[in-house]
Amino acid sequence: MNNLSSYALITGGSSGIGYQFARELAKKKYNLIIVSNEDLKNQEVCLTLSQEFHIQAIPFFIDLTGPESAEILFNFCIEQQLDVDILINNAGMFFFKEIPDTSPEMVSKILMLHIVTSTLLSTYFSNYMRKKKSGHILFISSITAWMSYPGISLYGATKGYLRQFARSLRYEMKDYHVNISVVCPSAIDTNLYNLSKKQRSIALRTGVMMCPQALAKKSLSAMFKKRFLYIPGFLAKVSVCFVLFVPPFVIQRIKRYMWKKLKINGNH
Ligand SMILES: NC(=O)c1ccc[n+]([C@@H]2O[C@H](COP(=O)([O-])OP(=O)(O)OC[C@H]3O[C@@H](n4cnc5c(N)ncnc54)[C@H](OP(=O)(O)O)[C@@H]3O)[C@@H](O)[C@H]2O)c1
Hints:
Blueprint: E1 6-11, H1 16-27, E2 31-36, H2 39-53, E3 57-61, H3 69-79, E4 83-89, H4 104-132, E5 135-140, H5 153-173, E6 178-183, H6 197-205, H7 212-224, E7 229-230, H8 234-245, H9 248-262
Parallel strand pairs: 1-2, 1-4, 2-3, 4-5, 5-6, 6-7
Helix pairs in contact: 1-2, 1-7, 3-4, 4-5
NADP nicotinamide-adenine-dinucleotide phosphate (NAP) is lined by residues 12, 14-18, 36-38, 63-65, 90-93, 113, 140, 142, 185, 187-188, 190-192.
């Protein structure tokens, strides 16, 4: 396969799952535009990938919670004549907090990062891809897309938005040969949850967590086969079926138990 003139743009591609997407696509000879808000780390990552795989890897430093970040990024690609064939909306953040205890800044940040910027990037690039009648847009959602659970209200709801948005965008793009896919992973071994090394290694060994390399490889394979939804792993598939049928009183009980364990105060 020769993808030497095509670019894959990966948001949050300098670490975690995004980095593994970058590596897998570099192996397939895609050039890369890696977006990150950590400039030095991203420059190093791009240098390493371009030397290892003999591709072009362009670091792009921006905070994707900024209201104009999608427009700035898209304009950069157009001005530099970078033919983006794959857009991976991967950048994300996670925190576990009840809504009344969450600062308005954190609320805005997660909404901007997961919803506004991903939607705007998809708007710009779906228009671009529709004109050339090719391309893929991949959304990294989560199994929490089905979980209206306390403590992850914003995370789950924004991931649910991405899954639903991707579904309708897929119908709109179908006749233009632009593929839209969405991946809904369960727990993946990255820094997202700030777990200790020991916790991560136990979770990996017991199969509760999946390694990000395997996730990236399988997700790309699903995307190239133009599948809409990919839920990686048996546990994740079972969890999705399970959460759809958990009655509200059980969720409330689990919540009280967890809050007690975590010593979270509040008037419940
Ligand atoms: N890990 C899991 O268990 C899991 C499960 C389901 C879904 N996901 C989703 O998978 C995606 C990747 O997460 P991960 O596990 O790989 O976590 P991660 O290692 O923390 O990576 C998150 C990425 O998002 C980028 N990012 C965060 N805020 C940003 C901002 N304001 N501007 C630009 N980039 C920003 C980070 O870039 P910097 O490195 O530059 O900060 C980082 O590369 C997320 O959307 C997450 O919700 C993860």
